[in-house]
Amino acid sequence: MRSNSFLCLLFGLTASLPVAAQFCASPEKPQLGQVVSFTYTPPSTSSLKDSIIEGRYIRYGSPAVMHISRSTAIKLVRQGNDYVGQLPPAQKDVTGTVLLVKNAQSPQKVDLYPVLMYDATGQVVPNAIGGQASIFTRTHFLYDVGSRPDPNQVVGLYERELRQHPDLRPLYWSDYLAAVIKQRKPGYGPKVKASIEAYLASRTPPTAAEIAAGAQLYESMGDFPKARALRERQKTADPAGSLAQKDRSMSIRNETDWNRKKTAYQAFLKEFPNSIHLPALTVMMTDGYFKNNDLKGLLAFLDQPQAIQTDPLMLNSMANLLAEERRSLPEAQQLAQRGINVLKAQPKPQDFKGNWEIEKQSRHRLLMATYARTLAQQGKNDEAYVAYQEAMNPDFVEDSDPMTNERYFLCALRTNHAADTRPYIEEAIQVERATTALKNALRNWYAKQPGQNEAKADAYLADLEADIRADQRDELSKRLINEPAPAFSMTDLKGRTISSSALRGKVVVLDFWATWCGPCVASFPAMQQAQSKFQNDPNVRFLFVNTREGGPLQRVHTFMEKNPYPFVVPLDDQQRVSRAYKVQGIPTKVVIDTNGRVRYRHVGYSGDPESTVNELALVVEMLKEGK
């Protein structure tokens, strides 16, 4: 009986052609719904006992049902020198299965065996041969196991299918010609081009998809003029198709007149509500409304259904910028609220990798923090405090934003919730996620509590910072240097002589700078804070040495008049001092200890005033202690 008959192949459809391998399947001509049993005999039995044989299979059908082609592991059971297994029954749309067998000890060798489906008359069903080729050309089945298809074999499969079922040419014509191109036999170019033209001419008329396939074939051969001609023909054949939509979307992007851009976008939205180009256009329009300062129009735009396609983090940035500039605060509040609403309804982005629910919570907290900030700036402190409560994450204080923590506590002070927020703020200080302003606000609040005073508040804050400052001191001590400090004598802007001999016994901070140096000037507010920490200490001096100015002295005078920092500015117009102190670039901070030794040198400015002040102050304190 047929159900007990076996089909045995000596080498089947194999990538490695192991002539001694054998594959037997039963029934010989399986139909849909039948279990297929098989026996696989490896090509050599000499080391069989040490081998690990692995198997996978993949179903296939016509090119229209490639979704059924998923690689699946199959269980192989050893019986003597053979391995046996079963393919589960094939269901609707399946025209065949390809079984892959490999030895884990020789992963580069792969054996492939086709199991074709038959109809009730015992004939191979349509797409049983061509479908195999689709597996090799449209999936990563072979590549995933470190192999690759044989172009000659693929072309042969397509040709066999088309000989047996010429009516299936519309399904396979472009895949077949693409395989011929990869085969690269002599004279393939003219043959393929003639076939493209003949096929398209035979269609009355060709579909837009067929024209697109022809254009892609021309492109793969480098014939771009013919490819472009077909692309234009494709637009005519399908004026609402993907190419037409792409052109329309590009024209909207390139439109420079804002009113015309808005009109063109609305027309595109009405005509192509499901276009793949719409999300990117919506994000562009959101940005456009903001850049054109049309906040009322932006909020109305975000009330439309397509707003779900915009970026909530973009809305957060817009609201934050308005809050930073303290303008249009009601609109900033509404932008943050719209961002929250969009995020709630937004599905996981296709390009996002990771846990979307966790990421979504993180983005929600970010938006809530901005929302709370805009409320507080409008004096809606009670609402702001509730929003801040939702924004803060007590489980991950070490990842929090120091400025948000500062705003949170200041809002808590205004709403009489300081005691409630105290544990969070204490932890923020202990994990170095607190600004100087936040520390001072907590200290001042603590000093006013029953039984406390200024001295106890200082001790309280010092205790909170003890561990982190100890770690900072240990880390910083490893970076301290010990070099002789060259003697210097310079004249400052007021005509006074500043000499190293007069500063002996003091800790001296030298900040080398120039008026044209952006990072130098950007660091001045932080340097002013650092200097103010020691303004009442006669044993600490800050000198802001102007060097490498390269221009008239009046430029330095003018700069200091426009920016009245309380700095002593010695002039190193010949760069003698900067060279002596090994200044490679500016700004450079150098700290000299009480014994006249250079102990610290830092080039550049990080842009973080908080860390700059803290590190410099810590260096000065350590050197005062004789470290």
Automatic annotation (TrEMBL):
It is found in: Cell envelope. Residues 479-625 form the Thioredoxin domain. One of its GO terms (molecular function) is oxidoreductase activity. Coiled coil: none annotated. It holds the Pfam family Redoxin. Its main location: other. GO terms for cellular component: cell envelope. One of its GO terms (biological process) is response to stress. InterPro entries: Redoxin (IPR013740), Thioredoxin-like_sf (IPR036249), Thioredoxin_CS (IPR017937), Thioredoxin_domain (IPR013766), Thioredoxin_ResA/DsbE_sf (IPR050553), TPR-like_helical_dom_sf (IPR011990). Residues 1-21 form the signal peptide. Keywords: Cytochrome c-type biogenesis, Redox-active center, Signal. PANTHER family: THIOL:DISULFIDE INTERCHANGE PROTEIN DSBE, THIOREDOXIN-LIKE PROTEIN HI_1115. This is Redoxin domain-containing protein. It comes from Spirosoma validum.
